[in-house]
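quick one before i forget lol
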Amino acid sequence: MPENNHENVDLGVLEARVDDLIKTVDSLKNENSALRHQQKNLISERAVLIEKTEQARFRVESMIARLRAMETRS
């Protein structure tokens, strides 16, 4: 009988550890999903910022070219 009780305790401990592992896996899956979503948003935001930077660079270069043209006319 004592061996049976020991086996029940071991089984209970094992069940608790498996339950903890399942909770950890679920938590990590949720975190991973949230991080992937955040990464997707950041990549999109980065693309928008790169485009805005390129547009600003083009406008500044155009202004510089116009100023140089005005200097040569004077």
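fyi The chain has a mean pLDDT of 93.
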